Amino acid sequence: MNSFDWLTQMGIPQLDTFDIVEVKFKGGRKEYFRNVDYLTLNTGDPVVVDVPSGHHIGYISLQGELVRLQMQKRKIRNDDSITRIYRVATQKDMEKWEEAKAREIPTLYRCKQIVDEYGLKMKMSDVEFQADNSKATFYYSAEDRIDFRELIKSLAGEFKVRVEMRQISLRQEAGRLGGIGVCGRELCCSTWLVDFKNVTTSAARYQNLSLNPGKLSGQCGRLKCCLNYELDTYMEAIKDIPQVDKPLLTEQGPAKLQKTDIFRKLMWFNYNHDNDWISITCERVREIQALNEQGVKVFNLQVDHSSAVEDLAAQSTRELELLDKKFSKKKKKKKRPTDGNGPRANQSQGPRPEARTPKPAEQSTSMAAPGQVRPADGNQAPRQGDKRRKNKNRPRPNSNQGLATGSAATSPKVDSPTPKPVEKPQEGQRRFPPRINQGPSNNQGND
Description:
Elements: E1 20-24, E2 30-34, E3 46-51, E4 54-63, H1 65-73, E5 85-88, H2 91-101, H3 104-118, E6 123-129, E7 135-141, H4 149-159, E8 162-167, H5 170-177, H6 201-206, H7 213-216, H8 231-237, E9 248-250, E10 253-261, E11 266-271, E12 278-281, H9 282-293, H10 308-330, E13 338-339, E14 342-343, H11 360-365, H12 382-390
Parallel strand pairs: 7-8
Antiparallel strand pairs: 1-2, 1-4, 3-4, 3-5, 6-7, 9-10, 10-11, 11-12, 13-14
């Protein structure tokens, strides 16, 4: 069952046991009956009880001292109006009750057809037959008052039973039909909740919940009853939270409130609709509000304006961040300009002889000048090294253009403001790079 008797293990004397038990019927309806014969009953036992128009069958949901507390809560008097329990239901009683319950669904469908024929603006929710199959109770919901006198006559003649019409609210309708809530448990209104209190959207605002009707509404279409369960705790905790009616003024701009954590005493602000939220304590918010009332703007939300050292550290940190952003843009390499034959070499810098390694072809084809002996260890002569240092600023030759004879001596490319188109050699002719008269060189023998 859905109720738990937490007083069963407390050792209450049997002589003082409360003789009234709570019986649960279809749809979560609970009523109280007196055990005058002192029957041995357990929670969940089916019993036959006395009702004004015959007898009915229900299940024991609660007994003992908890029943006294429930009666005081629901303001039910312990007087002679409480009827008695006949007996524990037998197998024959249960079979007859099952036959009566089998009539409920066909009766509900036929009742809806009759309501449509009369054109009544009412919604039939459920039908409940008594265990003795002598009375049927029809539950409906409607916004306005309905005149169903002709409907009762038609239903009594159709089903041959005494008819009772009972109007219920949408929450009571959800409790009778039952279901599983978004919490994963059975609905409160169909298990233990008997009195429905008013629920407003202010309860959701105090708890910082999204005002989405789809999330705040239950299966009945109204606001969830569980919004009131923790409302008192939130109202008590919200007393320590400062009220922010306008943005906080700082030197970096106005800071607007975005979120509040009531239990952790933290508040989140941002600058100019920025996605970076800054969390500060409630005490810090009160300090900033007090300074703003005096016309003083703090440097930022997290640093105190009165501390000059902290202001300087925060300002230097901000300047470093701006420098990082500035240099991060310069790190992106620009694409090198290209001519028709491939990427152009950098002409602003000359060749570096120290890092250059001579190729085997250059070593075999290069010749020393007359009157000089080339060292055997492969090092260049001093005069050649001086000449290379002298010609350090010369433009490097184009790497895509080589000599037809395969010699190492190449002529540098003339730097021009606009590259000239490369002329294709005619058939039978050989391509030679453009040559500039630079005087005698060490490679004259290769020409």
